[in-house]
Amino acid sequence: LSFYFWQVSGGDDEIQQLQKALLDYLDENTEIDASLVFSRKFYVAQWFRDTTMETEKAIKSQKDEDSSEGTHHAKDVETTGQIMHRAESRKKFLRSIIKTAPSQFSTLKINSDTVDYEDACLIVRYLASMRPFAQSFDIYLTQ
């Protein structure tokens, strides 16, 4: 798994490479467990939904800041454009996965190294920790 972290430049690239690795693992093991086909589709749909929700929240926060301050309009427009560009690149990545049949997905691998069960579990835990609920879980417990 460490090669995935060495090859990424950080941020969205890291997340997308981990998502590709997880989806590749699920694709390789669908013959063993047919429920992995559903899991693969669920993850793609969830990540697409997350991208849409994050974009809406970011744009809403930009509009709220713009209406409250009103002095940094050019900076806010540029930031909103960056938010939209990042969201579109994520969605493009997910659409390419949706259009690709699961058996063809293995040809999209970045490296010939495969992910084993332990690595897949680690990737799932890492990606789950990036979700808003997981990040705010300590706050819920303290309250």
How is the secondary structure organized here?
Elements (H helix, E strand, L loop, with lengths): L1 H6 L4 H17 L6 H35 L3 H27 L2 H4 L11 H13 L2 H4 L1 H6 L1
Helix pairs in contact: 2-6, 3-4
Largest sheet: none
**How many beta-strand elements?**
0
Low-confidence stretches: 1-9, 105-112
Mean pLDDT: 75
Cα end-to-end separation: 36 Å
Helix % is over 70%
In one word, what is the shape?
globular
Instruction: Please state the structural category.
Output: mainly alpha
Strand content: under 5%
Instruction: Give me the Rg, rounded.
Output: 18 Å
The DSSP helix count reads 8
- The secondary-structure element order is HHHHHHHH
Task: Please give the oligomerization state of what you see.
Answer: single chain
For the structure shown, list the relevant keywords.
143 residues, mainly alpha, 78% helix, disordered N terminus
Describe the structure.
With 143 residues, the chain is an all-alpha fold. The protein is 78% helix and 0% strand. The radius of gyration is 18 Å and the shape is globular. The model is unreliable at 1-9 and 105-112 (pLDDT under 50). Residues 58-81 are annotated as: Disordered. This is NIPBL protein. Residues 58-78 have a biased composition (Basic and acidic residues).
Task: Report a brief summary of the structure.
It contains 8 helices and no strands.
